[in-house]
Each structure stands twice: as C-alpha cells, then as structure tokens.
Amino acid sequence: MPEPELLECGHCGREADAGELQTTCPDDGRPWLARYDLEAIAAGHELADLAGGRNDLWRYEPVLPTVAPENRASLGAGHTPLVDAPRVGDELGLDQVLVKDEGHNPTGTFKARGMEMAMSRALELGAERFAVPTAGNAGAAMAAYAARAGVPARLFVPEDADDSVFERAEDFAAEIETVDGLITDAGDACSEYVEAHDDVFDLSTLKEPYRLEGKKTMGYELAAQLDGELPDVIVYPTGGGTGLIGMWKAFAEMEEMGWIAGDKPRMVSAQAAGCAPIVEALEAGAEFAEAPENPHTDAGGLRVPEAVGDFLILETIRDSGGAAVAVTDEEIHDAKDRMPRASGVSACTESAATLAALEAMVDEDVVAEDEMVVLFNTGAGWTG
Ligand SMILES: Cc1ncc(COP(=O)(O)O)c(C=O)c1O
User: Structure pTM?
Assistant: First the structure.
C-alpha cells in the first residue's frame, strides 16, 4: 500500500513531504493534493479486484494513504447504496436517475468519509488532539471518530447552528466552542486556537490533505458500482466542494490507471441562491470566487461564503463541461418534501438542492433524455 509519493500544491505546484503532518502550502496557503505512483498501482491492481475487499472505504486501500491497522479510526464509512430512482426519472422525462445515498454513513453523512481518512492518517503521522470548525455534520463526524480513537476533539460552531448539532457532538463528548458569526468566523477561531496550541491538529476541510482522499472514494465507489462506467452528469450540493473536487481527482486517477474509459461526468454544483459564490464566479469567468455579502440559506452545509478550494471547484466544473445552478430556499424545501416520496431516499436539506437543480437543468434542456444522472444525497433526512 502506498504512502502518497508526495504532496503537491493544487495551485502553485510546490511539493511537500507526505510523510509528515502538513496543513496548507506555505507559499500561497492553498490545499495540498496527495500524489501516488499510479503506474505502480495500476500494475498491481484493477478496479474490479478491489470490490472483493472490505465493505467500507478501505477497500480502495491501494489508492489511499498508508495507515497501519492500529491507527485506523474506523467506523465503516463508505460503501453506500447507489439507488435507482425511476419515479424521479419519469417525472423529469429522464431514462436514468440514480441517488448515491450517503445517509448510510456513520453519523448519517458523507462527512464520515473525510474524517475517517483524515483522522486515521493524522494519527499515523503522530497527531494526538484535533479541532475543526463546523456547521454541524463535519463536527458530529469528527466527534465520533475522536471517540473511536480515544483522542480529544474541539469543535468551533457558529452560534446559530441547529441545536441538534450540539446534541450530536455532545453524545461523543466533544468540547464545543460557540462562535459569534458564520462558518468562516468559526474557521478563524479554530485557526487561532490551533496556532496557540502546538499539539492540536486542524482538520478543517482542505487545510490538510486527507479529508479530500476520504471523499474521493465516492468517485471510486461510483465507478465500481457501475462496473467501470460513469454517469453522464453528477449533481452535488456544494459548500466547500471537497466531495466534488475529490470525485474529480478520483476520476483523473482512474483514467490515468486505465480503470475507466470514455468521457468523464459533467460535474454540476447545486448551490443555494442566498449563498452561490461558485455560480457567480462561473458566470464572471473568474479563477476564484467572491464571498457574497449576506450569505443566507436554511441548508446549513451550503452556507459557505468562502471556500479554500474555490479555484479547484471552478476548475472541476469547467474541465468537466459542467455547470453551477442556484436554487431558492423555497425550491429546496419543496424538493426536500418531494424527494423521499418520489425515491424512497430520505434526503437532507442540502441534497434537496440537487433535485431542484436537476429540474432547472431539464427545463433548460441541458440534460438529454438518455443521459445517466446521479444526484448526491450527502446526508440522511434526520441530520437536517
Ligand atoms: C449534508 C451536507 N451536504 C453538503 C455539504 C457541502 O459539502 P462540501 O463542503 O463537500 O461542498 C455539507 C457541508 O457541510 C453537508 O453537511
């Protein structure tokens, strides 16, 4: 199983040692991307072989960072169902709509994938205490993994976060600090705390390299579940964008290893109209996104005015020929009511935005009837 060979800055290309704990590129503060010897991996493995392994994300071990079994804070993240949703397809006039139901993950959301990988790898490299800013789901996941590993976890949570967030984190005995402001303010408070405490490692998304590696397993899993095929369109509820960037990284790796052939999916970001920096940056043709002035939406995970990986989200959408679609909270709430009834999948508020976005795309005729579309349900309905 490979260590990554090295870490490479996703923006300037500077390289760093993957064998040490790393945060972001010291030159430009941008995220590190883990790079592996894909030729060697491809020489020893095929996508179909991996399916015979464990029923969690470690089945993709050959393309993941090295973690000794004793350091794996494993709660069984990954291996979520890809559910056929023919009645959603019928309503939209599409032959094949599928839902990747990430609500089956530990703590009910896809955040478990990133946390399982990042905490395990950080433990492997010597970290002992953890902190994270969170609007809810990432914090619940980190708290659970910290409990599993028996290490302290501190969460920085915006004051107006949903009460259930605090309850879920308290179940796992995490320390919680409330922050007056948005998730970006919670991020600043977390950074200050980490700077003042040498022994605390910051697990903020894209401020260390391995939450992305955990999330990229969604891309490997999709390809495995579709026997090496990929959908034509993926619609993903986008806040910080780690899942979208991670899946695109997985597709690029698989392409390089010859594990997939043909066109890769068009990656579509569904955002809330009250906080749609990616939609606006795409329209403006910008490399980076600008924070909206008064970011607001009931979909807490989409209320991310500034994403560290904004340029990577934009690059992914552009390279894939995808799109970004803003939908109103009214449309999101309406879709949240309809999605479970039409598919049997209990959808979180963030993911209801994917159905509303797909409906808008169908209205605009940018999805053909015979195209396969995958909607990402990033969390179970009970999570929010
Ligand atoms: C349920 C849910 N969906 C989507 C998102 C956005 O995810 P990402 O940061 O990968 O864009 C979040 C983030 O908090 C979330 O909790």
Answer: 0.97
Q: How many CA atoms lie within 13 A of 265 on its CB side?
A: 28
Q: What is the mean pLDDT of residues 311-317?
A: 98
* C-alpha 40 to ligand 1 mean position (Å): 33
Pocket test for ligand 1, best of 80, 101, 110 (most atoms within 8 A of CB): 110
Q: Are 109 and 348 in contact (CB under 8 A)?
A: yes
Among the four given CATH numbers 1.10.530.10, 3.40.50.2300, 2.40.30.100, 3.40.50.1100, the one describing domain 82-109+212-383: 3.40.50.1100
Domain boundaries, the chain: 82-109+212-383
Mean pLDDT of the chain: 95
Q: How many CB atoms lie within 10 A of CB 341?
A: 9
CA 66 to chain centroid, in Å, comes to 20
344 secondary structure, DSSP code: S
Give the Å distance between the CA of 25 and the centre of ligand 1.
Answer: 23
